[in-house]
Design brief:
With about 100 residues, the chain is an all-alpha fold. It has a domain of about 70 residues. Helix content is about 60%, strand content about 0%. The protein has 4 helices and no strands. The chain is elongated. The chain starts with 6 loop residues before the first helix and ends with a helix.
Length: about 100
């Protein structure tokens, strides 16, 4: 039930009305609302992945994840990838700050 008159809300309700498949519902929700932030506190809206679509680009994103896992398996401290290591650290610190701000 919803008081919202938006077409997006009606579409989400229609999905819930026509399916009990949680995976389908989640995929439709992703399509309708967007992915939000991958590592942040935002739950809806546009992702910081400006060049990728989580649904259309699923295959390449899975390949990238596997490649990242291989890199970490061979070099867990990212010693050979100093720029990547610095960027990951910078993002972790920014996310910690964002989370602290959201909690206060």
């Amino acid at each position: 039930m919803s008081d919202s008159k938006s077409s997006n809300s009606r579409e989400r309700l229609k999905v819930m009305e026509t399916s009990q498949d949680g995976f389908f519902i989640a995929e439709m929700d992703l399509r309708l609302r967007g992915p939000g932030e991958i590592l942040g506190t935002q739950q809806a809206g546009l992702s910081e992945l400006a060049k990728a679509d989580l649904i259309k680009d699923r295959s390449i994103l899975e390949q990238a994840r596997k490649a990242a896992q291989l890199v970490l398996a061979k070099d867990p401290t990212l010693e050979r990838w100093s720029e990547l290591s610095k960027e990951l650290f910078r993002r972790q610190q920014a996310n910690k700050f964002d989370a602290e701000v959201a909690l206060n």
